[in-house]
């Protein structure tokens, strides 16, 4: 059982973070030549599309956007059992020798990103992979860090960060919820 704890970003602060991340991507790559965006299913996809929209306004160039399902590459699945059904991967462009900016809503342990990188390498050999997230909540178990972060939010392991987008949820915000211990209501 989860209980709402706090709202940490509203729609306006999310928009500001997306604008900042977009500028940082442009600056780090000295433009957007050879840059492609890949959103990790499910909640990295709207982030990727919004960053593409913002970069198009800033640079006048529409970056290709792909959608990556990394379910098969999770390291917490029992391979002797049927893997959960994922969403389709749609990357209608070559990633070889490109700068792939991988985007997700939250980075926590780093295991989702590790799986996503493995999936990308099965599709080609990017020149570079960069990572952008709306929220970095800490607690890394792997040596993976985000290059572009909307907000750093220190959390406990009993908390969950939820990023909601209008496209998926009808409204948007970033909230923290706390898992209730047994007996608490």
Topology:
Elements: E1 2-9, H1 11-28, E2 35-40, H2 44-59, E3 65-68, E4 99-107, H3 111-123, E5 128-136, E6 148-152, E7 159-164, H4 166-169, E8 173-179
Parallel strand pairs: 2-3, 2-4, 4-5, 5-6
Antiparallel strand pairs: 1-8, 7-8
Helix pairs in contact: 1-2
**Low-pLDDT stretches:** none
H and E order:
EHEHEEHEEEHE
Arithmetic mean pLDDT: 93
Number of helices: 4
What's the arrangement of strands in the largest beta sheet?
Answer: 3-2-4-5-6
Counting DSSP E segments of at least 2 residues, the number of strands comes to 8
Under the CATH scheme, which class? Alpha Beta
The oligomeric state of the chains shown is single chain
The CATH topology annotation reads as Rossmann fold
Question: Rg from C-alpha positions?
Answer: 17 Å
Computed structural class? alpha/beta
Q: What percent of residues are in strands?
A: 25-35%
CATH architecture: 3-Layer(aba) Sandwich
Q: Into how many domains do the coordinates divide?
A: 1
Major beta sheet summary: 5 strands, parallel
The helicity comes to: 25-40%
State the end-to-end CA separation.
Answer: 9 Å
- Gross morphology is globular
What labels would you give this structure?
single chain; 185 residues; alpha/beta; Rossmann fold; 5-stranded parallel beta sheet; 3-stranded antiparallel beta sheet; 29% strand
In brief:
With about 180 residues, the chain is an alpha/beta fold. It has helices at about 10-30, 45-60, 110-125, 165-170, and strands at about 1-10, 35-40, 65-70, 100-105, 130-135, 150, 160-165, 175-180.
